[in-house]
Amino acid sequence: MFYPILRSALFQLDPEEAHEHTVRALNTALSVPGAASVMRSIYRPATHGMQTTIAGMSFAHPVGLAAGFDKHADITHGMACLGFSHIEVGTVTPKPQEGNPKPRMFRLSTDRGLINRMGFNSAGMEVVAARLAKRPRGLPIGVNIGKNRDTSLEHATADYVTAFSRLAPHADYVALNISSPNTPGLRQLHETTALQELLGAIRSANQLLNKPIFLKISPDETPQQLEQVISTAIAYGINGIIATNTTVTRPNLSGPHTNEAGGLSGMPLRMLSMATLRTVVALTAGRVPTISVGGISTAADVYARLKAGASAVQVYTAMVYTGPAIVAQLTWGLAALMRRDGVTTIAEVIGTDR
Questions:
Q1: Active-site choice (122, 180, 297, 311)
Q2: Is 31 a catalytic residue?
Q3: pTM for the whole structure
Q4: Tens-place pLDDT, residues 262-289
Q5: pLDDT tens by residue, 2-41
Q6: Is the distance from CB of 313 to CB of 291 less than 8 angstroms?
Q7: Which H, E and C letters describe 111-172, residue by residue?
Q8: Separation of alpha carbons 248 and 70, rounded Å
Q9: CB 194: neighbour CB atoms within 10 A?
Q10: What count of other Cβ atoms lies within 10 Å of the Cβ of residue 223?
Q11: How do the domains of the chain map onto residue ranges?
Q12: CATH second-level architecture of 3-348?
């Protein structure tokens, strides 16, 4: 109930500065004895009948944290206290890098969206590996990896393999980010030859670790391009698809900052992300699960994504606008929708609207 007041104060700051204040405040709060237990109690999610299993991992409910919020694995404990069923850290690059020049994140308050051109600002795999070694237990933690900006596309695979080999031992799954619009040329890794090279190398590196591998894809691919990506991913043993990253399109936006370069997230992405989800679910035909991301801000959104075939969802921008109670609101709202429809488990929901 207090978040609207806090949000009005935070929204007076640059979005990236506001995020940094939030991270520091959360970690400071967790240093107080008993604070973690209080947070878990306040933000307790609904879990009865909500369990879902993805690539052998057990999720207490379908709502996870998308990559981008905890880029450097420095607030995994805090995010766990907010009730997320899983947390995806990153994007992490092999070497530390600053990312693009600031300002590089912009609020679209009237649209409840964000535009970012962060450019894989990363503490680097060594720092993140050390933090993941001390990560919270009891829920899946994934790590999202990408290439360094100064690495050419010809050598991109080596960057992914390097990051994978260092980080995978400390994570429950690894997501390959080939879809950020903010690293020049990165989306060319959707092309079949480049993707085959990348997935083949990751498969070889994963032989001993045997970690679930997810591919995070762009919402801006055509159905024909998606068909090529999905068929290649399945042929190379990918364990799941994360659909989608941010979009470079600008659908019906209003207010300032709408023409800023970068990837758009939040409510304006809702229809495009849902359309991509439906295409991916049709192409995968149940062979691998899909995690849906983009424009999810209400329990009805979560319900619709599950009915369309998603096995779980992830949020980021919605938390900026709704606040730390986002998981509790989504899961308890989802539970109410399930009761309304006489549904007792998530398994009864997934794919019913395909």
A1: 180
A2: no
A3: 0.96
A4: 999 999 999 999 999 999 999 999 999 9
A5: 788 888 899 999 999 999 999 999 999 999 999 999 999 9
A6: yes
A7: HCEEEECCCCCECCHHHHHHHHCCCCCCCCEEEEECCCCCCCHHHHHHHHHHHHHHHHHHCC
A8: 22
A9: 18
A10: 11
A11: 3-348
A12: Alpha-Beta Barrel (3.20)
